[in-house]
Design a protein that fits this description.
By secondary structure, the chain is mainly α. Helix content is 65%, strand content 0%. It is built from eight helices and no strands.
Length: 127
């Protein structure tokens, strides 16, 4: 992430915090992170903040992760482990269970996928 992107990200977080009426100390209490770390994040001093910490701050402040990814050029998405890796290490799932998790997520994605809106749909043919 560039210095400019880090500054934009910090400004987004600061605006979200202010809109919720939270001080840095209150946000620190809610997230479990040090208020000085949060202040540096808001000042744009981290070019590569820990994605798990960033995700937690975003969740606490109701910031859509897509907004963070748009500002940071996919820093959050690209820095997070894949679903299979996450569930294997966090939940200690077996390979068979991991297959089921992946299939369940694929089914959910298919269920909620947006239909194509243009004439380049690949339905019934090649693009």
């Amino acid at each position: 992430m560039t210095d400019h992107q880090a500054s934009e990200l910090g400004a987004l977080i600061r605006r979200a915090r202010h809109s919720k009426g939270l001080s840095l100390f209150a946000l620190a209490d809610l997230t479990g992170f040090d208020d000085s770390w949060l202040a540096r994040l808001e000042k744009g001093l981290y070019a590569s903040p820990n994605p798990a910490h960033l995700a937690r701050v975003a969740e606490t402040l109701d910031i859509d992760p897509a907004r963070i990814d748009a500002i940071s050029r996919e820093h959050l998405a690209n820095s997070m482990p894949g679903m299979r890796t996450y569930f294997r290490s966090k939940e200690k799932l077996s390979p068979e269970a991991l297959d089921e998790v992946e299939q369940a997520v694929a089914d959910i994605r298919a269920k909620y996928a947006q239909p194509p809106t243009d004439s380049t749909s690949t339905k019934g043919g090649t693009p």
